[in-house]
Specification:
Order of helices and strands: HHHEEEEHEHEHEHHHHEHEHEHEHE
CATH superfamily: Aldolase class I
EC number: 1.1.3.15
Structural class: alpha/beta
CATH topology: TIM Barrel
CATH architecture: Alpha-Beta Barrel
Protein name: (S)-2-hydroxy-acid oxidase
Strand order of the largest sheet: 4-11-10-9-8-7-6-5
Cofactor: FMN
Number of strands: 12
Oligomer: single chain
Keywords: Flavoprotein, FMN, Oxidoreductase, Peroxisome
Number of domains: 1
Bound molecules: ligand FNR
Family: Belongs to the FMN-dependent alpha-hydroxy acid dehydrogenase family.
Strand content: 5-15%
Shape: globular
């Protein structure tokens, strides 16, 4: 049985494609417009090489790290992705259990297809809650309150989706809006949209519920209604990273939404050093997008990331083999990171340095 298990993320992707209806696979896998950014997120990792150091005793590798004071066995955490029931009927509950089994953090999406309460009670884990700002602030405030009272440890405000990116596969497939189970205040709208004709219903739902007027003032507002730490997800420039620090957030997540929003935004790994430099160590910088290998994680750490988030790989695992698949994907990435660290002569995350990578800009 073990022999037939996929041995890497790409094999899980192939299984996911076989397992899912085309509409669902395309929704998970796709990106915006020409999908340049989607491809580049992955391709840019391929242009960074590793500079291993040898003759270092690597019989013990310690991948542990901490984020906002929480200890984790490795710097790999689960990115917020919507509608896990499209991948597996158990949805986010299965993903949460997989993350908990790996003692890692799961960021639960605003667009979760399981109720927040159900996910919170399904297992013991450190969870962050991801928020999109709704046009109706009372709906956002109610979600924040629920997340707080259910023991979520931080809020992740996604800021790169004031409007929905144009995902052509979803438009072609007439992608149906997954049920927005946590948005009681908007349920009647959900019904109207489900019965609407044509186009991507997801796009229509987003247009009605998300707030394109989202601005730095709303970060202030969010701070005023919660005592939880806030991370901003979707920052990709030094300018905005500096503003985020000024706004008093607890962390910056460098992300281009997995290439699903603005096409021709740079690969996240290409923007990492700029953003890390801008925050000057004042808050942790996380990065996501295109991570498919443990060596990718090592590259991100070397360029200054405190931790990384993985989106699609976990969904591939979930689609292919449910909770066990999602768990296996996280475990595989952890094992790959451990191996890459050993082969680079890094015994701990702290020992991974800029000198372990060679980028195009280094001119070597
Ligand atoms: C996402 N992403 C996302 N981000 C977010 O803040 N809230 C969300 O609800 C979602 N939903 C979502 C659905 C699907 C199917 C995907 C693939 C992505 C973006 C996600 O958090 C993350 O930024 C990317 O997935 C990272 O890129 P990789 O790891 O998928 O390459």
């Amino acid at each position: 049985m073990e022999d037939s298990l996929p041995v890497n993320v790409r094999e899980y992707q192939k299984l996911a494609k076989k397992a899912l209806p085309k509409m669902h696979y395309d929704y998970i896998n796709g990106g915006a417009d020409d999908e340049y950014t989607l491809r580049e997120n992955i391709a840019a990792y391929g242009r960074i090489l590793l500079r291993p150091r040898v003759l270092i005793d690597v019989s013990k590798i310690d991948m542990s790290t901490s984020l906002l004071g929480y200890n984790m066995p490795s710097p790999i955490i689960v990115a917020p992705t919507g509608a896990h029931k499209l991948a597996n009927p158990e949805g986010e509950v299965a993903t949460a259990r997989a993350a908990a089994a790996c003692n890692t953090i799961m960021v639960l999406s605003f667009s979760s297809s399981c109720r927040i309460e159900e996910v919170a009670s399904s297992c013991d884990a450190i969870r962050f809650y991801q928020l999109y700002m709704c046009k109706r602030r009372d709906v956002s405030a109610a979600l924040v309150q629920r997340a707080e009272s259910l023991g979520f440890k931080a809020l992740v405000l996604t800021v790169d989706r004031p409007v929905l990116g144009r995902r052509e596969a979803d438009i072609r497939n007439k992608m149906i809006s997954p049920r927005f189970v946590n948005l009681e205040g908007l349920m009647s709208l959900d019904k109207d949209i489900d019965s609407a004709e044509g186009g991507s219903k997801l796009e229509r739902f987003s247009r009605e519920t998300l707030d394109p007027s989202l601005s730095w003032k709303d970060v202030e507002w969010l701070k005023s209604i919660t005592s939880l730490p806030i991370l901003l997800k979707g920052i990709i420039t030094a300018e905005d990273a500096r503003k985020a620090v000024e706004a008093g957030v607890s962390g910056v997540i460098l992300s281009n939404h997995g290439g699903r929003q603005l096409d021709y935004a740079p690969a996240t790994i290409s923007a990492l050093e700029e953003v890390v430099k801008a925050v000057e160590g004042s808050v942790p910088v996380l990065v996501d997008g295109g991570i498919r290998r443990g060596t990718d994680v090592l590259k991100a750490l070397a360029l200054g990331a405190k931790a990384v988030m993985v989106g699609r790989p976990v969904l591939y695992g979930l689609a292919a083999r449910g909770e066990a698949g999602a768990r296996h994907v996280i475990e595989m990435l952890n094992k790959e990171l451990e191996l890459a660290m050993a082969l680079c002569g890094c015994r701990s995350v702290a020992e991974v340095t800029r000198a372990h990578v060679q980028t195009e800009g280094d001119g070597i």
